[in-house]
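Residues pack. Consider this:
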Amino acid sequence: MKERLYLDHAATTPMLPQAREAMAAALEEWANPSSPHGEGRAARAALEDARTRIKAALDWPHELIFTSGASEAIALATSCSKADRTIVSTVEHDAVQRAAADAERLPVDRNGIVDGGKLNWLLAGTDSRALVAIQSVNNETGVAQDLTDLDARIAVGGNLLLADCSQSAGKWPLPDADFVAISAHKLGGSPGIGALLVRDLAELHALGGQEKGYRPGTENLPAAIGFAAAVEAPKGWLGRAEGLRDHLDKAIEQEGGTVVARDADRIPTIASYRMPGVAASAQLIQFDMAGIAVSAGSACSSGSLKPSHVLAAMGWDEKEASEVIRVSFGPDTKRADIYRFIDTWKRLAKEAKSRAA
């Protein structure tokens, strides 16, 4: 049997060797960073060193609050920011949709790009202060938003920007947003740790406890150290990923498939494709049987088989959206892997055409 091929890095990237080794060493000898004794003080020093290293690697000069992941970081920002109301784009991750269920909605166009005119309208004519949640990169389509322009619009009137950078952190520069949510396991660290990056802690209500009073609970020191090692790992593979994605886009189109948001600016590590006439659920089974791991949209919702709210917001009808799968690359993805995926895609598409004939 062929070795299995993993093309679902947007769901989680396997831990990098550097992160595993750093965590293993930290697990050998660690203590509660809040303890006053020598062991506790050493643990505190190691935690602060990890915090400093992550901020430096991400070129973030402000504050960093460790959390259990991006979902908690998002929940912390939406529940504790000093804003009067919340606005979220219609293509945000489920974690944002859950944390801000009553928020005002900001539509997107066919390519998944936020409607700037609608944003201006939502922010105008009111003295209330808004927290606006917009992803840096969409987790299903890879579409990137121009957060520099959007932040300038949002900042007028003292509004706040929350950027979910789970898919872009460690790959692209971070936006200078008021709040940035990141997750270690998306970039080769361990699951169970992430961070909320904060431009100004004065914009966040404190909860008490650890992390300067903003996140109660004993810090996960070994995971934080692994997080730092993962963020510091070389990123030279990203240039290769762009070539792989472009090659895959062209091959899919040649076989009659559709590239989701083909004309949008997209991160090179994520792409979504429609195979007309073949349900995504059937595609996943067939790819899995061929030894290839891909997904249908977000890992947090693909198991429910519910229609993608992201594709619906972009104007896709339910049938079209039900035929879309996501392919995502990581540090070890090679050109031979893309050829193998394309060969399997061709076979499945050919079989579907034969059945339809």
